């Protein structure tokens, strides 16, 4: 898997896939910078009047419901349907799943459109499988990622999407395989939107990879690796955020071989 | 007061209060990062369809009118009313008070709902007390904070809120007491949204403190202290912003005792 | 031209012009910080209910269509018309020109209002002159800035605006003169919104300068110079963004004389 990720990273740098983001207002800037640092080309467009044309131009689509409005809810549905119609892969970040009926309704509609990949924290994945049954606290997870694996597998079977669960250990789940990523750093929970950046990087890899499972693994793994490398030189979350961009920019085969810590096994 | 602030900071780190922000688009990312660096848990939700449910979940509410729209104006009124109904404390940041009739109308409606705390710069506090009578220049203050203390006291009497005025000296005003914070640094005026971060930190302390006056003092004082400590190692406003997060993250009893410079006196 | 730019910079620091931005959601924070670091005073207001009043207060107007919505499209037209009526200079950043009919329609309407200055990358300027004829890829340019000079000159003749084209070499075009800026650094393309910051700085200089051509040259030249100086000390795009603010803050006559590399010639 390491060699594969190294190859996918080289492809992103060479092809600079255009990644269409309909994302939340908190992370627009940081998401764009994460994609640029990796080597992809972000475009942020959310008006219902033009999302179809941008889905046409882009190689992949990222939907992130963090700061949902009636307008962006409509745009997301239009964009996801159009992506399905023309065969574009798309990734869903169900930020704050479970905090309101409005949000759960949109998520239910988006799940019916069968996202290529879904990435969330433990609370979000548990909530997605089991609307309204989970004790959610805002947008930060109240559960350990390991506790959500069973829910993630059930969600995978239900929707057919690749499921990614971020946490102390990150999990990437397909019908046949599980990948565990043992990178990252606890301080990453004190920078806003790093999960959203992980989702965006999945979007970049979806834009160039044949297999969604491999794209999801590359996106999750490289964000966690960059975070771990950055944390080693950061006295706090301010410098951590800045150093993550620098590390994403500098990622190469040697660093990946030296520090990436992933395990894959069959289900 | 120092020991109290140290204790309140420890409570924030332990309880991680969920702080609901309906805030402006310029500072969404920096506000979330300031709250996370301190130890709180931010959630940014502004759709009228879900603000009530998030007020229910959160321990406090932050309203910031910087980039006002018809939509967020409605959300703010709904959220503030609901916060009052269920006894949640809330803080108002009247960014750009006085620059338009639309803004002044919303502010008049919000004042009727009696915010727990109001924090602004000198121009904003003067404008709030005396709509349309002040010579406002955009969102940066044209007056010294000291010149606004009289207006702040009158506003305190009128509305009953704790009033905070940011500036070279920060003032926190209650019916009985005044606190002066003699921390901060002039370069802080060349980073956008540090006043908004101060407001958000007040929100974090409102989420765990019994006394709004103490929460307001802790929020204002610790942002100014972090800014001062950060400025000492920053060649310009870019690194200042980054270092403020690192300093907020590292704040502890020793630093507060060594460098916090506040005075309290009766009115 | 160097001495002129030095003088204009001193004027910005002294007068702190209020720059009204109706800009895109990705760069609101970074644009505000670039303006503050230079010494100007940004205000971000986009509600149709209050844009006229803020145009009245401000010395210049910046319109950036990056994350266009029906609402901001309306606000931009209202603001540009009002700016023309009261004689305020304004600069247009046609982000993503050509990616949709919605965007091209708004741009056609804005061109009729004759912006004082237009700044874009090569693809955007080529698309503006020749709607729908250019092979656009999202918001990053697919063409070299030199290839767009002819289009820029034609656009200049057509609309009468000063035209700025960002790229490896930046071009500033008036009816009579061309300026080339040979500063900047390739890593700048991996930070989001630096072109938008360049546009915002043009706005700051328009707020204090008599000649739009000189204002445009100062804005473009100083952002590229700050980027070049920052890149020399930045291991990646994260630190580059931070260091650009520090460099903008520290710009002075000595640095400009030592490192600014511009050429002016008649057409």
List keywords for this structure.
UDP-N-acetylmuramoyl-L-alanine:D-glutamate ligase, 267 residues, nine-stranded mixed beta sheet, homotrimer, alpha/beta, 9 strands
Short description:
Chain A has eleven helices and nine strands. Chain A is an alpha/beta fold and 267 residues long.
Topology diagram in text:
Three copies of one chain form a homotrimer.
Chain A: H1 2-15, E1 18-22, H2 28-38, E2 41-44, H3 51-57, E3 60-64, H4 70-86, E4 90-93, H5 101-112, E5 117-121, H6 122-129, H7 149-159, E6 162-166, E7 170-173, E8 177-181, H8 194-206, H9 212-231, H10 237-250, H11 253-259, E9 262-266
Parallel strand pairs in A: 1-2, 1-3, 3-4, 4-5, 5-6
Antiparallel strand pairs in A: 6-7, 7-8, 8-9
Helix pairs in contact in A: 1-9, 2-8, 2-10, 3-4, 6-7, 8-9, 9-10
CATH class of chain A: Alpha Beta
Specify the CATH homologous superfamily of chain A: Ribokinase
Low-confidence stretches of chain A: none
Output the CATH topology of chain A: UDP-N-acetylmuramoyl-L-alanine:D-glutamate ligase
- Outline the biggest β-sheet of chain A: 9 strands, mixed
Record the strand order, biggest sheet of chain A.
2-1-3-4-5-6-7-8-9
Radius of gyration of chain A: 17 Å
Protein architecture, described:
Three copies of one chain form a homotrimer. With 267 residues, chain A is α/β, with parallel strands linked by helices. Chain A has one domain (2-266): Ribokinase (UDP-N-acetylmuramoyl-L-alanine:D-glutamate ligase). Helices cover 50% and strands 16% of the residues of chain A. Chain A has eleven helices and nine strands. Chain A has helices at residues 2-15, 28-38, 51-57, 70-86, 101-112, 122-129, 149-159, 194-206, 212-231, 237-250, 253-259; strands at 18-22, 41-44, 60-64, 90-93, 117-121, 162-166, 170-173, 177-181, 262-266. Chain A has a nine-stranded mixed beta sheet with strand order 2-1-3-4-5-6-7-8-9, sandwiched between helices. Chain A is globular. The relative contact order of chain A is 0.16. Chains in contact: A-B, A-C, B-C. Chains A and B meet through helix 5 and helix 10 of A and helix 2, strand 2, helix 3 and helix 10 of B.
